[in-house]
Amino acid sequence: MLKGRLGLERVQIAHADRHGLMYLDRGVLTVVDGCLHFNSGGGALPAGDYQLPHQTLSALLIGPGTSLSHDVLRILARHGTSLVAVGTDATRLYTAPALGPDRSDLARAQARAWADDKQRIAIARKMYARRLGEVLPHTAIEVLRGIEGARVKESYKLLAQSFGLSWKRRDYSRSNPDAADLANQAINHAATAVRSAAGVAVAALSALPQLGFIHEDSDQSFVLDIADLYRESVTLRLAFAAAKRMEQGADDTVDRLVRQSAAREFRRIGLVPKMIDDIKSLFGVKDDGTDHADHS
């Protein structure tokens, strides 16, 4: 099926070329004659044997039901390809070894922006503009957070109404996340899935997860920043749709329902590649490694 010495003339495996990502599940990944081979049992790829173009990949996303040989790790390390263990279609992030691309341009641009007070607030304002649909004139992060908080409360209410759900308030207990009502439980699970996708995007670019521009305290602050870009458009819509199906008697748990819905939606919209583009755009880093950022 794959012609050419390395199988690169007709690669019939779906992946986003500009982002260099490939998702594999339910199969065995090995090395044959110095090349990666994946024997699929019929998961994301139809059953069969595939030769992978590892020279063009920045990250392999390894989903459930996948095993691999030690030789695979050797090949990936040699070519600077990350191996990221994920849940179905990146709805969970389990581990991402630090084998990122052999470029530091994006991490350096992120660190420069984070360390400079003016650039740091400029990046935060860009994130808020993306979410709120307008560039706010304020330059104090506390004010921006307050405006965002008020608007998010309203978006919860309006989106819940659009799905025919009653809504009181956002209610989350870290010690007992399943104690809340169905809608809040669904939001918890949807937020976990979207945060996992953001973690994959950050890992694939070797960005610095600790250096957030809106979130500050978490060691995943930047991951949370990126996930929040999709709170209204993805997280809440997934959550409220699942909560409505549960109300209508869906024969499943809210966790499983949200995860399955998230996997389908992530595939449909290409969420991880979108997040990768978002991160590059924030810092003005182009695919050629040059930095054209202007955060003034």
What would you say this structure looks like, in words?
The protein is of the alpha/beta class and 296 residues long. The protein has 2 domains: 21-86, Ribosomal Protein L15, Chain: K, domain 2, CATH 3.100.10.20; 105-283, CRISPR-associated endonuclease Cas1, C-terminal domain (Four Helix Bundle (Hemerythrin (Met), subunit A), Up-down Bundle). It contains 9 helices and 8 strands. It has helices at residues 70-79, 105-115, 117-132, 141-162, 182-205, 221-228, 231-247, 254-269, 271-283; strands at 21-24, 27-32, 35-40, 48-52, 59-62, 66-68, 82-86, 93-95. The longest helix has 24 residues, at 182-205. The termini are far apart. Residues 1-17 have low confidence and may be disordered.
Q: How does the SSE layout of this entry go?
A:
Blueprint: E1 21-24, E2 27-32, E3 35-40, E4 48-52, E5 59-62, E6 66-68, H1 70-79, E7 82-86, E8 93-95, H2 105-115, H3 117-132, H4 141-162, H5 182-205, H6 221-228, H7 231-247, H8 254-269, H9 271-283
Helix pairs in contact: 2-3, 3-4, 4-7, 5-6, 5-7, 5-8, 5-9, 7-8
How would you summarize this macromolecular structure in one to three sentences?
The protein is an alpha/beta fold. The protein is built from nine helices and eight strands. Helix 2 packs across helix 3 and helix 5 runs antiparallel to helix 7.
Question: What would the keywords be for this entry?
Answer:
CRISPR-assoc_Cas1_N, Ribosomal Protein L15, Chain: K, domain 2, Four Helix Bundle (Hemerythrin (Met), subunit A), nuclease, metal ion binding, disordered N terminus, alpha/beta, magnesium, 4-stranded mixed β-sheet, DNA-binding, 296 residues, 9 helices
